[in-house]
C-alpha cells in the first residue's frame, strides 16, 4: 500500500484544516489506519487511529478538536483538525497496518505516507 497524504498548509491559531490520505492501490477499509505527527527536534507521536470498523482513538489533548474518519466510497482517510494551536504545527503522516484493530504505536504500522506540513501561526 502506498499512501498519499495531502491537505496541509498554513493557518492562524484557531483555524481548521482537513488532511486526506489515499492509497495509490489497495482498499483502506482492509487496514487499521492512523495519523501521526512529528515536529522538528521531536519524536513522531500518535494523533489518532481508526479501526477497520467504527472504533476511533485519540490523544487526550486532541480529542474534541481532531476527528479521524474514513470515506470508504472514496477510499480515503481524513483528519479534521479544528481550533488549531501553534503546538499542533508538525509534519503529519498517515499510516496503515495490516490488522484492522486500533494501534497507537508507530512500530505497529506497516505502511506510511510521505507527510504533509501543517503550520500554525499565532
Question: How would you describe this structure to a colleague?
Answer:
- This protein has 122 residues and is an all-beta fold.
- It is 0% helix and 48% strand.
- It contains no helices and eleven strands.
- It has strands spanning 3-6, 9-12, 17-23, 32-38, 45-50, 56-58, 66-71, 76-81, 90-97, 111-112, 116-121.
- Strands 2, 4, 5, 6, 9, 10 and 11 form a seven-stranded mixed beta sheet that branches. Strands 1-3-8-7 form a four-stranded antiparallel beta sheet, with no helix packed on it.
- Strand 4 (32-38) and strand 5 (45-50) form a beta hairpin.
- The protein is globular and about 40 Å long.
- The N and C termini lie far apart (37 Å).
Based on DSSP secondary structure assignment, what is the total number of beta strands?
11
> How many helix segments?
0
Radius of gyration: 13 Å
Low-confidence stretches: none
| Structural class assignment | mainly beta
Strand portion: over 45%
Helix content: under 10%
Shape: globular
Mean pLDDT level: 94
Largest sheet: 7 strands, mixed
Q: List SSEs in N-to-C order.
A: EEEEEEEEEEE
Instruction: State the end-to-end CA separation.
Output: 37 Å
